[in-house]
Specification:
Layout: E1 2-6, H1 11-27, E2 32-36, H2 39-43, E3 52-55, E4 58-62, H3 68-85
Parallel strand pairs: 1-2
Antiparallel strand pairs: 1-3, 3-4
Helix pairs in contact: 1-3
């Protein structure tokens, strides 16, 4: 699974990164976590406010800090979709 945190390095972006790290650890999904701080790269996702969370190239949250339960749900749902696609 490919997970990206979009943001310019603000405090909320860092909080989202930590929340996603914890959710990955809790759910046990196999994921690569990347920070994207380049504004033109962020704009390619159509995101106008950060922080934003992208899972497998789909923006699932933008401009807010989802809690760990919500992130965990997104991760397990994305993981389940991968298995169904196989």
């Amino acid at each position: 699974m490919d997970i990206k945190i979009l943001g310019t390095g603000c405090a909320n972006c860092k909080k989202l990164y930590r929340t996603v790290e914890l959710a990955v650890a809790q759910t046990g999904v196999s994921a690569a976590l990347t920070k994207v701080e380049d504004v033109p790269a962020i704009m390619k996702y159509g995101v106008m406010s950060t922080p934003a969370l992208v899972i497998d190239e789909t923006v699932v949250a933008a401009g807010r800090l989802p809690d760990i339960a919500q992130v965990s749900t997104w991760l397990t749902t994305a993981e389940a979709k991968k298995y169904k696609a196989k």
